[in-house]
Specification:
Number of helices: 4
Order of helices and strands: HEEEEEEEHEEEEEEEHHE
Strand order of the largest sheet: 1-7-4-5-6-3-2
Oligomer: single chain
Largest sheet: 7 strands, antiparallel
Shape: elongated
Structural class: alpha+beta
Radius of gyration: 25 Å
Strand content: 25-35%
Length: 264
C-alpha cells in the first residue's frame, strides 16, 4: 500500500529536490553517509526518508546535517539505521510539514472516489428515509427491480432529493417496498497525518505527485513574491505534467449498469 511517506517522497521527486544515496553508517537518530558533498546545514530542517533496512518506510524532519562528516540527525526512529541502508533526503526549501500538507491538497484536488451504500431497503408508501451516518452529497439513488441476486437497478434520482441527512421522495415517486436502495456518493476525504497512513489504491501516485507539486510551487512562488524565475518555469512544467497525468489516470466516474425505470 502507498503511504503518506511514499507520497511526500514522490512529491519531492517531482520538485527535483531529492538526493538518494546509501548510508555508510547510522543509529536510531542518525544516518551517516561519508560520500555526500553538500556543505554544512544544507539539509538541516529538510526531510529524510529511509528506503531500506530496519526503518524502511519511515520519514523524519532533519534537525541537523554536518557536511564534513556526512551525519544527518533527526528524532529517534527507535530501530537502528546502518551501513548499506538506502535513503533519500531533501533540503528545507519545501519543509516536511509543507510536503504533507500539499499531498493532502493534491488528494482533495483529485476528488473523492464514488462509493456505494446498499444498507437501505424500500418500505411501501414511505417517502422519507434517513441516510446512513457516513452518506452525504448523494450523486445517484437507485432501487433494485428484483429482490434476489443478481440485482439490477433503476435510477430514481429524479424522483426525490437529499435534505438535511434524509432522502425525500416526491409523492408518487416512491418505490414499492422490499427492494434494495443503492446510494452513490463521494465520501469526505480523510486527511493523512501519520507517515504510515495509507492512500486508497485508486489514487495514482504519479498523478498525485504532480497535483501536489503544482500546489507546492504556488506556495513557494507566492512566498518569494513571484521573484523566482527557476520555480516560475518549474510550475509551468509541473502544470503540463499534471494535465498529462489527469488524462492518463482519470478518477473513476462511471457507476454500475443502470436500468431506466418505467414510470407508472
Amino acid at each position: 500500500m502507498t503511504t503518506l511517506a511514499d507520497a511526500t517522497l514522490q512529491l519531492a521527486k517531482c520538485l527535483e529536490i531529492v538526493t538518494e544515496s546509501v548510508a555508510t553508517g547510522g543509529s536510531a537518530t542518525t544516518v551517516i553517509d561519508t560520500t555526500v558533498s553538500e556543505p554544512n546545514d544544507y539539509f538541516t530542517n529538510g526531510t529524510i526518508w529511509i528506503l531500506s533496512g530496519n526503518n524502511a518506510g519511515k520519514c523524519a524532519k532533519i534537525s541537523g546535517y554536518v557536511g564534513s562528516t556526512g551525519v544527518f540527525t533527526f528524532a529517534t526512529m527507535t530501530l537502528l539505521n546502518a551501513a548499506l541502508d538506502r535513503y533519500a533526503a531533501c533540503p528545507p526549501d519545501f519543509p516536511t510539514w509543507l510536503l504533507r500538507q500539499k499531498v493532502n491538497q493534491g488528494i482533495r484536488n483529485m476528488g473523492g472516489l464514488l462509493t456505494f451504500d446498499t444498507s437501505l431497503t424500500s418500505v411501501t408508501a414511505q417517502l422519507v428515509y434517513n441516510l446512513p451516518a457516513t452518506v452525504r452529497n448523494v450523486k445517484k439513488l437507485e432501487v433494485a427491480n428484483v429482490k434476489t441476486s443478481p440485482l439490477a437497478y433503476a435510477d430514481y434520482t429524479g424522483r426525490g432529493r437529499e435534505k438535511n441527512g434524509t432522502w425525500e421522495f416526491t409523492p408518487g415517486g416512491e418505490p414499492e417496498g422490499g427492494y434494495t436502495i443503492r446510494l452513490t456518493y463521494v465520501p469526505e476525504t480523510t486527511l493523512l497525518t501519520a507517515d504510515t497512513d495509507t492512500l486508497n489504491l485508486y489514487y495514482n501516485l504519479n498523478r498525485l505527485g504532480w497535483e501536489a507539486a503544482v500546489e507546492a510551487l504556488r506556495w513557494i512562488i507566492k512566498r518569494r513574491a513571484g521573484n523566482d524565475k527557476i520555480y516560475g518555469s518549474l510550475i509551468v512544467e509541473a502544470d503540463a505534467n499534471r494535465g498529462r497525468m489527469r488524462r492518463l489516470y482519470p478518477m473513476a466516474k462511471a457507476g454500475p449498469r443502470v436500468i431506466t425505470p418505467v414510470w407508472s
